[in-house]
Amino acid sequence: MTDQILSVPDISCDHCKMTIEQALAQISGVGAASVDIPAKTVTLSFDETSVSLDKIVHTLAGVGYEVAR
Ligand SMILES: [Cu+2]
Asked: Residues 30, 20: contact at Cβ < 8 Å?
């Protein structure tokens, strides 16, 4: 598993946290994911052999959250 911290500037409340965590939970290959609201970050671990970081970033964009890079 690869650990990754993503910066997501639009995170502002519990609703954002729930939306993001639920979206990530539906991607196979993504393990634990947690959203830090004050820090506006998403910390997750994923299996690089079954999902790419790109796919994760696109999934977040699909639910309305752009990852800053
Ligand atoms: Cu919100």
From this structure: no
State the distance from the centre of ligand 1 to the C-alpha of 41, rounded, in angstroms: 13
Residue type, 21: E
Q: Is 68 contained in some domain? A: no
Q: Which domain holds residue 36?
A: 2-62
pLDDT at 69: 77
Q: How far is the CA of 1 from the centre of ligand 1 (A)?
A: 28
Instruction: Express each pLDDT in 4-62 by its tens digit.
Output: 999 999 999 999 999 999 999 999 999 999 999 999 999 999 999 999 999 999 999 99
User: Bridge partners of 30?
Assistant: 46
CA of 49 to the centre of ligand 1 (A): 31
CATH number at residue 37: 3.30.70.100
CA of 15 to the centre of ligand 1 (A): 5
